[in-house]
Amino acid sequence: MVSRAIIQELQAAAGKGAVTFSPEDLIVYSYDATMPEYRPDVVVFPQSTEQVAAIMRVANEHRLPVVPRGAGTNVSGGSLALEGGMILCLSRMNRILEIDRENLVAVVEPGVVNAELQAALAPLGLFYPPDPASMNVCTIGGNVAENSGGPRCLKYGVTKDYVLGLEVVLPTGEVIHTGGSVMKNCTGYDFTRLFVGSEGTLGVVTKITLRLLPLAEAKKTMLAVFDSVVDASSAVSAIIARGIIPTTLELMDRILLRCAEDFVHVGLPKDAGAVLLIEVDGFRESLDGQMRQIKAVCRANQARELRHARTSKEVDDLWLARRTVIGAVGRLEPNYGLQDVTVPRSKLPIIVEEIGDISAKYDLPIGVLAHAGDGNLHPIVLFDARRDGDLAKVHAAEKEICKAALALGGTLSGEHGIGLSKREYLPMEYGPIEMSLVARLRKVFDPNGILNPGKIVAGGIV
Ligand SMILES: Cc1cc2nc3c(=O)[nH]c(=O)nc-3n(C[C@H](O)[C@H](O)[C@H](O)COP(=O)(O)OP(=O)(O)OC[C@H]3O[C@@H](n4cnc5c(N)ncnc54)[C@H](O)[C@@H]3O)c2cc1C
After folding, report:
1. Does position 215 have pLDDT exceeding 80, yes or no?
2. What is the pLDDT of residues 234-275, one digit of tens each?
3. CA 456, CA 420: separation in Å to the nearest integer?
4. Which of 76, 138, 196 to probe ligand 1 with, by most ligand atoms within 8 A of CB?
5. What pTM was computed for the model?
6. 453 lines ligand 1 (CB under 6 A)
7. pLDDT tens for residues 144-189?
8. Which residues have a Cβ under 8 Å from the Cβ of 309 and sit 6 or more positions away?
């Protein structure tokens, strides 16, 4: 419970209309895109850095847990108020402050929605590559905190490759600036990189300076259809081994193809074992040559059909299917666990087979979705939480998927973070010294342990 006196201090810091503690509002902010729910005591919507700093000073003084939140689309429990306290929702700080064409730089507030930034840049011939499948909803602040990726990140890299500088409010209320709008920066420690991917545990990001690229002149999109998911995943590393880096190499297996097609009705081959959604971009005259080579590799890996998207509608249809498929699995089962492991891409065929074995062992359908070019898999475990024993089986299956990825030289998370969902697995990848460093580092930034307590590692308010 937060006392009336603290509520009044928060109202003084952010304005009366920026603070809510009505039960119906608290319910809305009690969940993210994972299953668990934790009710916060208060939700605050700041509109400026000064307000965030004032709010953090109040929270720090009263040892009030604070959970930063963008759009709440994360899939690792990152924006859940595990210990109650405050949700600090940055959605009202949503201005694009500057687009600098000469320097190819944009400065944005954290609540800017990813797709809105893309839409503002495209007419200027500019491009911000990171494109999480949730881009129509998720915020740049959330992307920075999770170091988000997306389909285009195979060729272009992930969020950390585009963040040049940050303004951050520390848990103590101090405001710091890291990096800047220069392309090279070797001054002192790289604080910018430390904050990117820190999952809202070190500071609240209030301003972001992003590197932009010129928009590619043209792109081509193709669907490669395979009878087997193993063949499709073998084609992925074979394409890269040819020295071609497509913009995207996305994989969907049979389970997901069926869900997607039954939802969007765009003519996906429901009888296929898997498809690769392949896109190349660049100078117009370079694209046919790239596609020719990719097609040859796909054929050599038993692709049974290669479908070019010939109109912009056909391109949009394919992407609609890909971007909505996670929601579409609700047609099969009411619940899903979305995994996020990465393996060296040459190991994709092995892990895909192992996931098939895990699915059989636990008698649970597991759809395989992958940013395959990056070796980043999102196995989707389908279940019904109301069915006795399902939840326990899901946890066991997910743990086995993590172990299998680590055994292949992979990692626990490619882009969704550790948050709450994987904190118990972190010691499988980090040794005791690394685990202790995480805790010690956190204490440097957050001496009272108020910021997003219980995420990445257990433990909270000290
Ligand atoms: C259908 C679907 C598809 C998805 N596809 C992808 C994908 O392709 N690639 C990918 O990487 N992810 C994907 N995600 C996951 C998710 O969209 C990303 O993690 C996204 O970056 C979260 O942004 P958000 O604004 O929703 O942040 P939230 O979920 O609100 O917060 C995420 C984390 O960031 C912290 N945070 C938020 N704002 C700030 C801030 N200003 N300062 C400090 N910390 C902050 C929060 O405390 C939390 O820990 C997908 C999710 C869904 C539901």
Report:
1. yes
2. 999 999 999 999 999 999 999 999 999 999 999 999 999 999
3. 6
4. 138
5. 0.96
6. no
7. 999 999 999 999 999 999 999 999 999 999 999 999 999 999 999 9
8. 220, 221, 222, 223, 315, 317, 318
> Is 255 a pocket residue for ligand 1 (Cβ < 6 Å)?
no
Q: Decide: 171 in ligand 1 pocket, CB within 6 A.
A: no
CA 91/CA 28 separation, integer angstroms: 14
Dump pLDDT digits (tens) for 3-38.
Answer: 999 999 999 999 999 999 999 999 999 999 998 999
The pLDDT assigned to 274 comes to 97
Beta-sheet pairing, 86-89 with 66-69: parallel
For residue 241, report the distance from its CA to the centre of ligand 1, in Å: 32
State yes or no: pLDDT of 462 exceeds 60: no
Once rounded to an integer, what is the mean pLDDT over residues 91-96?
Answer: 98
Q: Are 126 and 101 in contact (CB under 8 A)?
A: yes
Residue 294 sits at φ, ψ, to 5 deg, of -65, -40
Confidence label for 460 from pLDDT (cuts 50, 70 and 90): low
Domains 4-91 and 94-214 in one fold: no
CA distance 221 to 205: 36
As its CATH architecture, domain 216-331 has 2-Layer Sandwich (3.30)
Contact 376, 149 (CB under 8 A): yes
Question: For a substitution probing ligand 1, which of 49, 139, 146 has the most ligand atoms within 8 Å of its CB?
Answer: 146
Tokens of 314: 């056909």
CB–CB of 270/258 below 8 Å?
yes
Please determine, looking at this structure, whether the domain spanning 94-214 carries the CATH number 3.30.465.10: yes
Q: Can you name the CATH fold of 333-415?
A: Alpha-Beta Plaits (3.30.70)
As a whole number, mean pLDDT of residues 100-107 equals: 97
| Fold assignment, 4-91 | 3.30.43
Average pLDDT, the chain: 96
Domain ranges (residues) in the chain: 4-91, 94-214, 216-331, 333-415
Report helix, strand or coil for 68: strand
Q: How many CB atoms lie within 10 A of CB 12?
A: 12
How long is the chain?
462
